[in-house]
């Protein structure tokens, strides 16, 4: 038996040292898969995941092309293929759009958007050669509906949604799936300082909007309704699906947000339909 055939699939998961990434890695390993667990701190990965058969911990900063190339080369040399890519690495940013510094904006886009593109572009040649694979990009409830206080963060996730929609169309003829996953609020460390940057500037005029969201987030931390272990299990179910969806909402809060936004868009579109249609050349 070759090392490739010894495992159900080979998964590459970014941001796998803690949180949802680590839980997904654990679920994939338990399901009989090989896992390339990628992160900036490989010691944290092995401390969390141990030395399970099929686990390969690799140093990977999604903003560093050299590290990405080295990690993927090692993965291919070790397992022969990559069947599933989970673009999970990222962080949050809380603050009104006007309050957010250019430095924080750029850093957020570098990780949450360009990081996804960097890793995906590096993995796709191998999936294309295989004529199989599944690219899964972790978005958010904020990737479908933006909100005060999370505008810049949501902008990065909106970008991920757009990229995934295009990938879905581009890769389908090649036998490769693309899915964007939209978790709601799950009980992880996402609202901790380790995962969530807060804009240092506070403008009093936004106290009732982004300010209220700051207070809400502080109270919600570690009280979120979503179970991250069940999220990880759902990811295995997603990968096993013969016809995976373009979008997968996770959590009743995301389902409610999608329904609310869809209803709002429908109502507003109908209300302004006459003006919208008036801009065509006359027939």
Write the layout of secondary structure elements.
Layout: E1 10-13, H1 19-30, E2 34-39, H2 42-49, E3 55-59, H3 65-79, E4 84-87, E5 92-94, H4 102-130, E6 133-138, H5 151-171, E7 176-183, E8 196-198, H6 207-220, H7 228-240, E9 247-250, H8 252-271, H9 273-277
Parallel strand pairs: 1-2, 1-4, 2-3, 4-6, 5-8, 6-7, 7-9
Helix pairs in contact: 1-7, 3-4, 4-5
Structure, described:
With 283 residues, the chain is α/β, with parallel strands linked by helices. It has one domain (10-277): 3-Layer(aba) Sandwich (Rossmann fold). Helix content is 48%, strand content 15%. The protein contains nine helices and nine strands. It has helices at residues 19-30, 42-49, 65-79, 102-130, 151-171, 207-220, 228-240, 252-271, 273-277; strands at residues 10-13, 34-39, 55-59, 84-87, 92-94, 133-138, 176-183, 196-198, 247-250. The strands form two sheets. Strands 3-2-1-4-6-7-9 form a seven-stranded parallel β-sheet, with helices on both faces. Strands 5-8 form a two-stranded parallel ribbon. Helix 2 (42-49) links the parallel strand 2 (34-39) and strand 3 (55-59). It is globular and about 60 Å long.
């Amino acid at each position: 038996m070759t090392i490739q055939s010894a495992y159900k699939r080979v998964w590459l998961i970014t941001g796998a040292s803690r949180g949802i990434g680590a839980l997904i890695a654990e679920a994939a390993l338990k399901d009989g898969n090989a896992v390339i667990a990628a992160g900036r701190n490989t010691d944290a990965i092995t401390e969390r995941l141990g030395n399970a058969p099929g686990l390969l911990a690799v140093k990977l900063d999604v903003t560093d092309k050299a590290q990405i190339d080295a990690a993927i080369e090692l993965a291919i040399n070790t397992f022969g293929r990559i069947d599933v890519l989970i673009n999970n690495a990222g962080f949050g940013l809380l603050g009104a759009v006007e309050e957010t510094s250019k430095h924080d904006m750029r850093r957020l886009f570098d990780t949450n958007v360009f990081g996804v593109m960097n890793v995906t572009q590096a993995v796709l040649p191998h999936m294309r050669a295989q004529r199989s694979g599944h690219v899964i990009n972790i978005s958010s409830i904020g990737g479908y509906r933006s909100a005060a206080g999370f505008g810049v963060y949501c902008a990065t996730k909106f970008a991920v949604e757009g990229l995934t929609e295009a990938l879905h169309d581009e890769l389908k003829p090649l036998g490769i799936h693309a899915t964007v996953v939209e978790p709601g609020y799950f009980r992880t460390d996402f609202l901790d300082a380790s995962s969530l940057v807060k804009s240092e500037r506070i403008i009093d005029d936004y106290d009732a909007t982004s300010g209220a969201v700051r207070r809400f987030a502080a109270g919600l931390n570690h009280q979120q309704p979503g179970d991250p272990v069940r999220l990880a299990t759902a990811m295995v179910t997603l990968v096993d699906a013969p016809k995976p969806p373009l979008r997968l909402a996770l959590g009743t809060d995301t389902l409610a947000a999608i329904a609310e936004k869809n209803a709002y868009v429908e109502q507003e579109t109908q209300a302004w339909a006459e003006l919208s249609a008036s801009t065509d050349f006359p027939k």
